[in-house]
Amino acid sequence: xxxxxxxxxxxxxxxxxxxxxxxxxxxxxxxxxxxxxxxxxxxxxxxxxxxxxxxxxxxxxxxxxxxxxxxxxxxxxxxxxxxxxxxxxxxxxxxxxxxxxxxxxxxxxxxxxxxxxxxxxxxxxxxxxxxxxxxxxxxxxx
Length: 142
Prior knowledge:
single chain; alpha/beta; five-stranded mixed β-sheet; globular
């Protein structure tokens, strides 16, 4: 298993934790020097805070752990394409690379970005990431 699949699998585990808590199942892992620095899942519904997306929580935690708001040596893995807010946080924290699973046709913003400083690798474990989201919203509609 290559590194991207390995770390995306960890992000998927975070997403599954959210799913079990009836939270939109998005997981995020931030890697620094081949080690997991931070991992989170969405907590927006649980904590009733609109900005508690997995990426925002992971970025905040990583900054505290690294002791800087510069995450320029980090790679962020997220199961779903980041929204506009999370993309802004990624830019502001100087994350060097973002790897995401499935597209977010309604709210995704990263794929629209024309920022050459961020290396974007889309569609890693796309089917698995999409399946978790699909199953969650299918369950919600029942």
